[in-house]
């Protein structure tokens, strides 16, 4: 993608005042993950590198604590249309081919899009429907297009006001009775604050919103929590609109 077209695309991301107020944070999160995916070195203060959580981060042990197994609450079914928002390398890692569900990804990382678009069709050109480069609040699909929407691992980087935009879009693109699976950081967990500090130094601010506020937001948008599960750092929800 050329520099000009990328700039034009990012401009479209923030076309509305509601989205525009989140421009700085969205671009910061994009930069933070592009750096990590590309394995670019980042110097951190000695006191941060001395934190036990940084040692877990460097060793890869932290990944297991920050990953939610969304399929344990709602496994994609054969021929369902599934939207994975903030998908990362999901199609290359998780058993989408075994599920036989149609995968539509969405990402703000151009590195992810380029690499998954190369490998996805080779793994299964029937199920893989591509990755769209766009933020969570901009779902360019028709009403009622998806059976299932997934958003894990990134809700904590944005405030509840931003997630009002996201939930409105998710509701719009889900079929009646469709499910939304997403996770939120649980600030009551002991390691949550230290993880938030680490993320700040890695380049992205973390919002420590109480679970009660997330649950209130879902109910205000007509969502019914059908299942939920606690992880080591994140709390996973299955919501029906």
Task: Summarize the structure in words.
The protein has 241 residues and is α/β, with parallel strands linked by helices. The chain has a single domain (3-240), classed as Rossmann fold. Helices cover 44% and strands 20% of the residues. The chain has twelve helices and seven strands. The protein has helices at 3-13, 17-20, 23-37, 46-49, 52-59, 61-65, 90-93, 96-99, 110-124, 160-173, 192-202, 211-220, and strands at residues 81-85, 102-107, 128-133, 146-151, 174-185, 224-230, 234-240. Strands 3-2-1-4-5-7-6 form a seven-stranded mixed sheet, with helices on both faces. β4 (146-151), α10 and β5 (174-185) form a beta-alpha-beta unit. The protein is globular, with a radius of gyration of 17 Å. The termini are far apart. The model has no long low-confidence stretch (mean pLDDT 93).
How many strands, which pairing sense, and closed or not: the largest β-sheet? 7 strands, mixed
**CA gyration radius, whole angstroms:** 17 Å
According to CATH, the fold-level topology is: Rossmann fold
The neighbouring-strand order within the major sheet is 3-2-1-4-5-7-6
Shape: globular
Strand content: 15-25%
- List how many beta strands DSSP finds: 7
Distance between the termini: 36 Å
Poorly predicted runs are none
Helix content: 40-55%
CATH class annotation: Alpha Beta
- Quaternary state of the chains: single chain
* CATH architecture grouping: 3-Layer(aba) Sandwich
């Amino acid at each position: 993608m050329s520099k000009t077209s990328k700039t034009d695309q990012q401009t479209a991301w923030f076309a509305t005042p509601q989205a525009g107020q989140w421009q700085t944070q969205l671009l910061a999160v994009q930069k933070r993950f592009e750096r990590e995916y590309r394995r670019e070195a980042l110097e951190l203060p000695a006191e941060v590198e001395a934190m036990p959580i940084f040692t877990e981060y460097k060793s890869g042990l932290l990944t297991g604590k920050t990953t939610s197994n969304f399929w344990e609450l709602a496994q994609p079914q054969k021929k369902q249309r599934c939207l994975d928002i903030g998908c990362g390398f999901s199609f290359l890692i998780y058993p989408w081919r075994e599920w036989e569900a149609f995968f539509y990804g969405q990402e703000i990382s151009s590195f992810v899009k380029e690499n998954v678009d190369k490998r996805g069709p080779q793994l299964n050109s029937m199920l893989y429907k591509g990755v769209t480069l766009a933020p969570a609040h901009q779902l360019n699909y028709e009403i009622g297009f998806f059976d299932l929407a997934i958003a894990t691992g990134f809700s904590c980087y944005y405030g509840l006001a931003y997630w009002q935009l996201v939930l409105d879009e998710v509701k719009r693109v889900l079929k009646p009775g469709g499910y939304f699976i997403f996770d939120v950081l649980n600030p009551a967990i002991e390691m949550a604050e230290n993880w938030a500090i680490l993320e700040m130094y890695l380049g992205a601010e973390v919002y420590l919103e109480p679970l009660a506020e997330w649950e209130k937001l879902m109910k205000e948008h007509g969502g019914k929590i059908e299942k939920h599960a606690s992880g080591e750092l994140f709390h996973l929800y299955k919501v029906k609109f």
